[in-house]
Design a protein that fits this description.
This protein is of the alpha/beta class. It is built from 9 helices and 5 strands. Strands 2-1-3-4-5 form a 5-stranded mixed sheet, sandwiched between helices. The protein is globular.
Length: about 210
């Protein structure tokens, strides 16, 4: 097993790095992303990501590109609808515990298909084949508490779903997530990515 090297960034510094990276992405500025063989060999020995990221599997959502981050900087967990299932929770706990990341971000996005499917279940009693129905079940409570019509309802449901997943993590009873929040070495935030503007809004902060 390789040695673990913990990041030196604190939660606020890690978040500022993401915000600055997204600003550069919006402005079309060249991102300085090291990818030389020396770095690759260093990362083969250990990783020290500055943030864990739970985002949707949507092909248009790539955290590394949105924030200009390179190899070894983001510990990314992705599933359709960015929900906390067993695999996602265990992965985030591993990032916070053994790897010591100071920041966890849950990010939803504009026009999320998984959230739209959950809306159709609520509004039209839609049924989806295979495991798709079970996959979107955790999103339904967020849809039920959201308001609006059409695109407004979809956007509000996406944000409500993000906030719900954030609360699950913030209120986790396991010391792996609870203790670092209590001592200020971990922050868990929620974000929303707008396809049209390219902006990531960190709208749910502790």
């Amino acid at each position: 097993m390789t040695d673990v090297v913990r990041t030196t960034a604190n939660p606020d510094e890690a978040l500022e790095l993401l915000i600055e990276g997204n600003r550069r992405f919006l402005n079309g500025e060249a991102q300085d992303i090291p990818a030389d063989p020396k770095l690759r060999l260093e990362l083969a020995k250990a990783q020290a990501p500055m943030a864990a990221y739970l985002s949707c599997s949507d092909s248009r959502v790539s955290p590394e590109l949105l924030f200009g981050r390179g190899l070894g900087e983001l510990f990314i967990v992705r599933n359709a609808g960015n929900t906390i299932d067993t695999a996602a929770l265990g992965s985030i706990e591993f990032a916070v515990g053994p790897l010591g990341v100071p920041l966890v971000v849950v990010m939803g996005h504009q026009s999320c298909g998984a959230v739209a499917a959950a809306i159709s279940v609520v509004q039209d009693n839609s049924i989806f084949p295979g495991s798709i129905g079970r996959m979107i079940e955790p999103i339904i409570p967020a849809v039920l508490c959201a308001h609006g019509k059409d695109e407004e309802l979809l956007e509000n449901s996406v944000k409500a779903n993000v906030s719900r997943q954030v609360q699950i993590l913030r209120n986790a009873t396991d010391p792996i997530l609870r203790d670092p929040q209590d001592n200020g070495t971990l922050k868990i935030v929620g974000a929303y990515y707008n396809f049209e503007t390219g902006t990531v809004d960190f709208f749910d902060r502790p």
